[in-house]
From TrEMBL:
Monomer. It is an enzyme of class 2 (transferase). Keywords: 4Fe-4S, Cytoplasm, Iron, Iron-sulfur, Metal-binding, S-adenosyl-L-methionine, Transferase, tRNA processing. It is found in: Cytoplasm. Residues 173-419 form the Radical SAM core domain. The keyword Iron-sulfur applies. SUPFAM superfamilies: Radical SAM enzymes. This is tRNA-2-methylthio-N(6)-dimethylallyladenosine synthase. It catalyses: N(6)-dimethylallyladenosine(37) in tRNA + (sulfur carrier)-SH + AH2 + 2 S-adenosyl-L-methionine = 2-methylsulfanyl-N(6)-dimethylallyladenosine(37) in tRNA + (sulfur carrier)-H + 5'-deoxyadenosine + L-methionine + A + S-adenosyl-L-homocysteine + 2 H(+). Its EC number is 2.8.4.3. The lineage of its organism: Bacteria, Pseudomonadati, Bacteroidota, Cytophagia, Cytophagales. Pfam families: Radical_SAM, TRAM, UPF0004.
Length: 485
């Protein structure tokens, strides 16, 4: 999932999702206790931390950005690659000193690593007091209370129903302009390399009415952009009948069925001034209907994150992605046919998957030449215990080869990103101003519809404004522009 580092479009290899983390902001609403959360991994995790903060707020905690000041420290963790877990282990060891000084402080490990390792984490990391998986956050206040009384606790129950639909998130990740809305949880896809189905459980879709309500409330508070989140948004499906049966929503009406295309349209209708984005799309599931809805609404951003993983059909089969090279290329030409060249397309790529030959790696490079992704998140394969690939296929590509193949992918992506950005130069584009540029406080930055960062020359505008910008220059990672109106 993308957008973790907003100012950098090309993120190289193993560092992409593992090393970057977000912390909580300072919030003073007069609560007695202080909570510090550090969130690793994907946008779903960042979004979950907002739910956690909300649950803890109800139980007497304000968030703080200084862990020295905290009564409770949570690390919301990621297991996607080995490096992601090693980063968290290292971080935990840094907290040893502060735990010695403040033995009453509670330290919790949340998220995917908690779910994967369960009780083992308490044995391996002595300073940890609570271990809580992604579906058990409602139990956090209770577990923290027990920890304060001296009993360590673990809850890694995975639910088939939990969507936290009723919880109003504390917006930790937000600049007051853009916000995440989780529309579904879990994943049923079982890609052979991937730990997510084991750490996040079965796929379930959130009640569309609660999603629309959240989008509306955000818009009323002044937000200008929402990103609908799920591991696989195109398989979003909610049916009133099923929810009635499960007694999840007693008010659910008759036979209403809502698909992702329907939901996207409903969110787009909240207001033409509310930009709508979504992530992640699975190539096997993205429908023409979704593409036509995108075309019909100016406020649905023309950008699709469509991870291919490999350009070779045999490797895709081993990965259990359930599409082949031809299918993927057909989806891309449909996107181009319906939404045109301006639609941004990005991808995730894995180099050196089990038994990948040099020719098969070349297929990934040649697919990139055909599609010309705007940017990509690129990794080398990291075997994850318990996954289908770990059980069935030897991790037989030497690390040196994986790294070399990854570098070739990164180098090619950099050329394509530059080529794609050069096409924007000279164009007039609508940009939403999101904040001050990292490079200089004199410069503002925003994003265009295709999700590209645009750095703006000084001008008369404010954060949250939609402005028309003339793109004047670019690097492989960034566009530069000046305000027209
Ligand atoms: N649901 C999204 C992906 C979520 S994980 C999808 O299906 O596209 C984000 C990315 O991490 C994946 O797309 C994949 O490229 C990468 N990834 C997942 N497991 C990995 C592993 N074991 N080794 C290396 N990269 C991995
Ligand atoms: Fe993992 Fe595949 Fe699910 Fe994405 S679709 S989260 S890669 S199992
Ligand atoms: Fe990581 Fe879990 Fe997200 S493994 S990528 S935090 S779903």
């Amino acid at each position: 999932m993308d957008n973790i580092i907003k100012d950098i479009d090309i993120i190289s290899g193993e560092d992409a999702q593992a090393c970057d983390y977000k912390t909580t902001v300072n919030e003073f609403t007069g609560k007695n206790k202080k909570l510090y959360i550090e969130s690793y991994g994907c946008q779903m995790n960042f979004s979950d931390s907002e739910i956690v903060a909300s649950i803890m707020k109800e139980n007497g905690y304000d968030t703080t950005s200084d862990f020295n000041d905290a009564d409770v420290i949570f690390l919301n963790t990621c297991s996607i690659r080995e490096k992601a877990e090693l980063t968290v282990r290292k971080r935990l060891s840094q907290f040893n000193t502060i735990k010695k000084q403040k033995p009453d402080m509670t330290i919790g490990v949340l998220g995917c690593m908690a779910e994967r390792l369960k009780e083992k984490l308490l044995e391996e990391e002595r300073l940890v007091d609570v271990v809580v998986g992604p579906d058990a956050y409602r139990d956090l206040p209770n577990l923290v209370l027990q920890a304060e009384e001296g009993t360590k606790g673990v809850n890694t129950f995975l639910s088939r129903e939990e969507t936290y639909a009723d919880i109003s998130p504390v917006r930790l990740n937000s600049n007051g302009i853009s916000a995440y809305i989780s529309i579904m949880r879990g994943c049923d896809n079982m890609c052979s390399f991937c730990v997510v189905p084991f750490t996040r459980g079965r796929e379930r879709s959130r009640d569309p009415h609660s999603i629309i309500k959240e989008a509306r409330e955000l818009f009323e508070k002044g937000y200008k952009e929402v990103t609908l989140l799920g591991q696989n948004v195109d398989s979003y499906k909610w049916s009133a009948e099923e929810n009635n049966k499960a007694r999840l929503n007693k008010k659910a009406k008759g036979t209403e069925i809502v698909t992702f295309a329907n939901l996207l349209e409903m969110v787009a209708q909240v207001s033409p001034s509310l930009r709508v984005r979504f992530s992640t799309s699975h190539p096997k599931d993205i429908t023409d209907e979704v593409l036509y809805v995108m075309k019909s609404y100016d406020n649905i951003c023309k950008y699709i994150h469509l991870p291919v993983q490999s350009g070779n059909s045999r490797v895709l089969e081993l990965m259990n992605r359930t599409y082949d090279r031809e299918w993927y290329l057909e989806r891309v030409s449909k996107i181009r046919q319906i939404l045109g060249e301006e639609c941004g397309i990005s991808s995730d790529m894995i180099a050196g998957f089990c038994s990948e030959t040099e020719e098969e790696h070349q297929d990934t490079l040649s697919l990139m030449d055909i599609v010309k992704f705007d940017f990509s998140y690129m990794f080398y394969y990291s075997e994850r215990p318990g996954t289908l690939a770990a059980k069935k296929f030897p991790d037989d590509i030497p690390l040196e080869t994986k790294k070399r193949r990854l570098q070739e992918i990164i180098d090619k992506q950099s050329i394509h990103s530059h080529e794609r950005n050069l096409l924007d130069v000279g164009q007039l584009q609508e940009v939403l101003i999101e904040g001050v540029s990292k490079r200089s406080t004199q410069q503002y930055k925003g994003r265009n519809s295709a999700n590209k960062v645009v750095i703006l020359a000084e001008g008369n505008y404010n954060i949250g404004d939609y402005i028309t910008v003339k793109i004047t220059d670019c690097t492989p990672a960034t566009l530069f522009g000046e305000i027209v109106s």
